């Protein structure tokens, strides 16, 4: 991916590289952080191989995976990913993990940045994603940002988020942007 600046006051998104495998693996195996994400099998080497394969998908504009960093100390604090781009120009996002080094505003800033990337840099029309019904904190977060539940199944709520939601989000949280 070409040099793309995705940053807010406290947070920056940096494209994932193979050298990030150990950090990503450490997040995904941390039992405090992985309750509501897909489980991982394997080793750091397997994670590096996954990233190597992912970089091909990135090159083909099929998905985009980022490290979330703090701007004050350059510390890596998490991951976020845009994927499953639809024929009608929608995008899903997830693989969203923030560790204990995050700031109070890291969640809103990283969500803002992934939406900015999807809507402005890639010109997608809407975002969709699923959240485990047990993940009450993340459900509340998405409702607060303007995402709407469009359906549910036994396990997940299915959300959508549109450009007009993004504009309101930007206004509401302008002090962080």
Automatic annotation (TrEMBL):
Limits of the N-acetyltransferase domain: 13-147
InterPro entries: Acyl_CoA_acyltransferase (IPR016181), GNAT_dom (IPR000182)
Single GO MF descriptor: acyltransferase activity, transferring groups other than amino-acyl groups
Signal peptide: none
Keyword annotations of the record: Transferase
The protein's name in its UniProt record: Butyryltransferase
Organism classification: Bacteria, Pseudomonadati, Pseudomonadota, Gammaproteobacteria, Enterobacterales
């Amino acid at each position: 991916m070409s040099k793309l600046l995705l940053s807010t006051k406290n947070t920056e998104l940096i494209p994932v590289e193979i050298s990030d495998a150990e950090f990503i693996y450490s997040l995904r195996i941390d039992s405090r952080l992985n309750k509501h994400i897909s489980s991982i099998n394997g080793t750091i080497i397997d994670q590096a191989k996954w990233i190597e394969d992912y970089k091909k998908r990135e090159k083909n504009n099929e998905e985009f995976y980022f490290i979330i960093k703090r701007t004050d100390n350059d510390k890596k604090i998490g991951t976020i990913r845009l994927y499953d781009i639809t024929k009608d120009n929608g995008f899903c996002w997830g693989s969203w993990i923030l560790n204990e080094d995050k700031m109070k505003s890291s969640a809103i800033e990283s969500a803002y940045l992934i939406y900015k990337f999807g809507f402005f840099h890639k010109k997608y029309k809407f975002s969709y994603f699923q959240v485990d019904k047990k993940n009450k904190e993340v459900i509340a977060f998405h409702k607060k940002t303007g995402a709407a539940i469009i359906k549910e199944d036994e396990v997940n709520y299915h959300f959508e988020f549109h450009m007009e939601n993004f504009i309101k989000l930007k206004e509401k949280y302008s002090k962080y942007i």
